[in-house]
Amino acid sequence: MRVLFIHQNFPGQFGKLAAALSARAGFEIYALGDESNITLKPRQTYPVFAYRTRQVTKSNAHHYLHSFEAAIRRGQDVVRALQTLRQKNITPDLIIGHPAWGELLFVKDIFPAVKVIAYCEYFYRAQGGDVGFDPEFPATDDDRFRVRIKNSTQLHALEQADAGVSPTAWQRSSYPPREQGRIEIIHEGLDLQRLVEKKEASFTLADGRTLTRADQVITFVSRKLEPYRGFHVFMRALPELQKRLPQTHFCIAGADGVSYGIPAPAPHEHYRAMLMQEVGARLDMTRTHFTGTLPSDRYLSLMQISRLHVYLSYPFVLSWSMLEAMACGVPVLGSATPPVEEVIKDGFNGQLFEFFNQAALVEKAAAILAASPSALTALTQQARRDMESHFSFEQHSLPKYLALIERVMQ
Predict the structure, then answer these.
(1) How many structural domains are present in the chain?
(2) How far apart are CA 130 and CA 408, in angstroms?
(3) Is 191 helix (H, G, I), strand (E, B) or coil?
(4) Which of 20, 40, 190, 379 is deepest in the core (most CB within 10 A)?
(5) Residue 250 · residue 220 · CB < 8 Å
(6) Are residue 148 and residue 259 in the same domain, yes or no?
């Protein structure tokens, strides 16, 4: 069976699955991504092709349509790449792709017989999701109208899809009820042989100092340091956290900028600059460490030395970092928002606090750091068991994907 993965930032969510299928008899794997984003790694055992996106000038169309127009153009860029594959006699039996950026819009026009599984990550809502959640960034009617139209790309792609996959139940619930029945819940899965507790782990800071499990370290991780992941809440709580925890180091991993719906805070270049201006004078910078984006081995070491991982999220896509911390035996203090509450049960496998309650964040973090390791054992062991029971790639994600592929192909 020939399977083509399509993701503008390949491998994206498909790395483990593509590698696993390529190693199985009966599968011939190919991948396609935006040439400006895809990462080609020597260990890949299957061809990865690139499509080239054309420079798009903003049209005079209504601003709600700008993202849809960009998706259509990207879909046409993918068409050109698929036509090239067809000329090479590479005709996929199955396409697995992400529909959000337009890449799946026209795949069946090029390969009418192909089956399509769409990765249904998130369907934007005018209410009950990320839009309007944070009173600091209130949503206008214009915002609500815009996000409804933003879903147009996915709606058109889903009409062509034979099945869908969402990583969590809450993410699936964001989709229209008429679509949810054909969307399977299959998380991308964790490599639980790699994500383990490691008492001898160490992490070297930019200034040359090395932190270990003997140090008190609180971690905060986000791809971009932005409000969607509660960066502003964490930073505003940080002065009081440092006052309550005078021996604790705070390692904040992630890039400056924004990935999601709230723009950069003009006149500041990014939220870190804004928040450092707001609270920086009250911080002990010898214990405040912005690590930037980390390579995977350094990121894992940081997780393994952490004594507490703080994770916040709007009602939005759940991050891998929270699950990875739980897999590594790190206590997690998370925001009581729907995607987090689906996994963390307060006092059972982690602890929760109300997203905007900085005082509760401080109190609970201080209590966790003050507890003896043995007092937290039941919590962290249950978290690890839950990762093994529900999020193991080998034991859960891969078998579910194989079963779905078999059903779709039949």
Answers:
(1) 2
(2) 32
(3) coil
(4) 190
(5) yes
(6) no
DSSP3 helix / strand / coil % (the chain, rounded to 5): 40, 20, 40
Determine the pLDDT at residue 40: 64
Same domain flag for 366 and 221? yes
The rounded Cα 157 to chain-centroid distance in angstroms is 21
Amino acid code (one letter) for 362: V
- Whether residue 174 is found in the same domain as residue 234: no
Question: Rounded to an integer, what is the distance from CA 66 to the centroid of its chain?
Answer: 24
CATH code of the domain containing 353: 3.40.50.2000
pLDDT tens-place string over residues 128-183: 999 999 999 999 999 999 999 999 999 999 999 999 999 999 999 999 999 999 99
Token readout for 288 is 């405040």
Q: What are phi and psi of 405, to 5 degrees?
A: -60, -40
The tokens of 398 are what? 């891969």
Mean pLDDT within 234-259: 97
pTM as predicted = 0.94
User: pLDDT tens digits, residue range 161-173?
Assistant: 999 999 999 999 9
Percent of the chain with pLDDT over 90: 92
C-alpha distances out from residue 87 to 81, 82, 111, Å: 10, 9, 12
In a domain, 370, yes or no: yes
